[in-house]
Every structure is written in structure tokens, then in C-alpha cells.
Amino acid sequence: MSSAGAQLQAANLPDPLGPSDFRPIDEGKAKLGQLLFYDPILSGNRNISCGTCHHHSHGSADGISLGIGEGGKGVGPKRIALDGEDRIRKRVPRNAPALWNLGAKEITLLFHDGRLSVSNIYQNGFNSPAQEWLPKGLDSILSAQALFPVTAQFEMAGNPKENEVAGAVHDRIDAAWPIIAKRVRGIPQYGKLFVDAFEDLSDPADVTIVHIGNALGAFMGSEWRSYDSPYDIHIAGDDTALDDQQKRGLDLFFGKGNCSACHSGKLFTDQKFHALALPHFGPGRTRMFDPYARDVGRMGESDDLADAYRFRTPSLRNVSLTAPYGHNGAYPTLDGIIRHHLEPLTSFDAWNKDLAALPKVPWLQAVDFISFSDRRERARLRSKVDIEPMDLSQEDVSALVAFVNSLTGTKSKSGRLGRPSVVPSGLPVD
Question: What kind of architecture, by CATH, is found in domain 3-16+227-405?
Fold first, then answer.
């Protein structure tokens, strides 16, 4: 590359990501949150934790397309659905999102459809599925996010007749949170840790779901920070950090490939919503009174037809650690998801269900691909594409894959505190 070309490239690159881009770490809350994150005490049946689907061994995700939440056993691709009277009725509707850099100050919305966002519409700091019932005092969007998996039937709560948490959620979402808080503060070790970590607490009896959410938010926001990748070293001035293929991929990413139009900024996401015509399978998420098994994306939150089948742009930092890809994990490789971006409709038509990494659940196999086989739903998905086809060679695609791999952290990729071996409840740690 000529010196003029190198200067132009540098001018087009986002500013470096660093510690000042994140919220401050409260070490006491983060260490408490680490224990809570891996403690099944937060789940309805005390048998699954946040860490089950966002595990250190799988880059803060779970390595499968659609997970098995409450009612399963094991971690990642080895997780199985348990049979019996309380067997699962659905898979988790969407791919477990990775947690890298979600503690950054610029993150203002979460979930694939953005149904949680920073807002004061309900005078509690957030626009969320809990609306005005979300409690005040949550100090970050990650703290707010932490309260929802524990109330989700197919993630952590369980079926309404199985436990008091699921039964309470069936009445109203905020009815479950005091039950969970009482469980936690009743464990002496947790009680002491909360009093030590929170200045507003002098008695464990005063621990609420807000304290639990804030501890979990502190852990997630500080555990998975990554800005020490070869790419970061490169933009700091070390021209040897990237090899020639990665440099070529960088040029394509910010140039001809136009990848940075959506994967922009320090986090490689514009935090906006785009329709890619990804094939649908699994239960999906749709509008409240829609009986069909499909996933309408952002429209399910906004109720705006213009948002149909649009999903939030994911960050690409450490994405090499968190396959499969897409809001439902439709593609097992970076090569596959990049090729889909280049030829969305051709790729949609060629996609086959063997690409989906779905743990075997015999009683769900008949419904896993209902909408994928439905001619009308396929036509609707094909009609909503926000990206234009692009002609790149196999060498170009390989270079893009190499560059995206250069966004993987070095020392940071294992997390900061890691996975605890034991938790105060005494329950097994996944």
C-alpha cells in the first residue's frame, strides 16, 4: 500500500476502543455478580444459571443455534433436553448473544430486536417489556437486561405449575422478582456480600432485585471487555500486528466490501436494525397476538410494518469465538454468514436445515422448520432485504474472514474473573 493509501485508510478507521469507553468497575459488585451469574438459585427450578447459556467456555455464548434453556442438562453443544412430565415445550427462540463489550457507554439498546433501550418513557430509565413495572434504581442497561431471562419461561423461569417464580410471572412480570430476591438474601454468604458491596445496605433483609441486577450488570460489564486484538495493536501503530491477508481484508471491510456501513464505530456495530433474509426456524418471536411460529424481528417491538424481519447489527469484536451466526444461528461459519451478506437471496434459497446447530429434541422436530417450509412466509422474508448483492471473489471472502478473526482479543478473550468453581447456594455450577 502506498503511503497516501495508508493515510486514507487510517482516516477511515474508527477511533481506538479503550478503558475510558466503559463504565467504571465496582470490584465488590462485580465479584458478587460473578457468583450470581453462575448460580442456579436465580432460576425457577434452581437448575440453570445465566452462565449456562453465556459460558466462559463458549466466548460468553453457548455455541449452538437455538439453545435449550430450563429443562436441559449440560453446556453448549453437549446440552441435552430432559424428557419427562416437565420436558421443554420450546427451544429458546433466538441465538444466545455474546456479551463482549456490552458495558461500553455507547450501548443504548439490547436484545436482537432492541426491546430494551435507554429511555425515560416509564420514569425508570428504560423502555422494556416490563414497562412501568421495571423497578427504579437500575444503574445500567446491563443491570436492566439481567432481570428478564429469570422471568422467561423457556430460559430460566420454567413452566407456571412447576415453581413459585414461574407462577408469579404468569400473573405479572414484577411479581417474580421479590421471590428471587428473598431466595438470594436468605443465604448468609450472599447477605454479607451484598452488605459489603452496596453502600445503601446495612441489613441483608433489604436486598432487592435491583441490587441483584446491579451486581450482575457490574460483572457482565467488566468481565467481557476486549480491546487488545491484533486489529487494536495495528491501529495503535504496530504495522506487524496484521498479516498481509488480514490487511487486505481490512481494506475490503472499510472499502469495496462496504461492511463498515453497518458494522461501524469502535464496537463494529451501528446499533441499528437491518433485514438480511436469514432463513427462519424454531419458535421465533412475533407480535403479541400472532399465533404463527415466525420471527418478525424489530417489528415485534415497534409494531411498525417497516421494521419487519429487521434485527440489530451485532458487534464483530470476538465474533470468531461465538459461532454460529445470525439472530438464530443460521450459519456455522464466518465464511457462510459473509457469503450470505454478498448474495442474500441466493443464499436464502440455497440454505438447508443441516446448517442449523440444534440439539436433538425429538418431540420438537416436527415443528422446528414449519415456517422455513411455508411458501408464503418464505416469500415475506425474501421481500425484505436491506443489503445489495455484491460480487467478491473467494480470495476476497477469505481475506474478510482473516480480518474479522483479527478482531479477536488476546489476553482478554478468557474473561477477567472467570467462572467460579462454587457458588453460595451450594448448587452445581455449569
Answer: Orthogonal Bundle (1.10)
Cell numbers that stand for 140 in this block: 445500567
Q: Which three cell numbers stand for residue 243?
A: 498479516
What one-character DSSP code corresponds to residue 229? S
Q: What angle do CA 342, 244, 58 make, to 5 degrees?
A: 65
- Enter the pTM of the model: 0.95
Same fold, 3-16+227-405 and 22-61+97-225: yes
CB 356 within 8 A of CB 281: yes
Nearest Cα to Cα of residue 41 among 194, 207, 190, 214: 190
What lies within 8 Å, CB to CB, of 113 at 6+ separation is: 273, 285, 297, 298, 300, 301, 311, 312
Who contacts 373 (Cβ-Cβ below 8 Å, separation ≥6)?
A: none
Helices of type H across 255-409: 299-302, 334-342, 344-350, 375-382, 394-405
Which cell is 387 given? 443489503
Q: Which residues contact 57 (CB under 8 A, 6 or more apart)?
A: 75, 76, 419
Give residue-wise pLDDT tens across range 346-396: 999 999 999 999 999 999 999 999 999 999 999 999 999 999 999 999 999
Helix runs in 127-208, H state only: 141-145, 164-171, 177-185, 188-197
DSSP state of 59: T
Quote the CA–CA distance of 403 and 398 in Å, as a whole number.
9
Domain boundaries, the chain: 3-16+227-405, 22-61+97-225
Nearest Cα to 97, choosing from 335, 307, 323? 323
Phi (first) and psi of residue 331, to 5 degrees: -120, 130
Q: What is the mean pLDDT of the chain?
A: 95
Query: In the CATH scheme, what architecture does the domain 22-61+97-225 have?
Result: Orthogonal Bundle (1.10)
Cα Rg of the chain (Å, integer): 22
Our CA angle for 213, 36, 197, nearest 5°, is 65
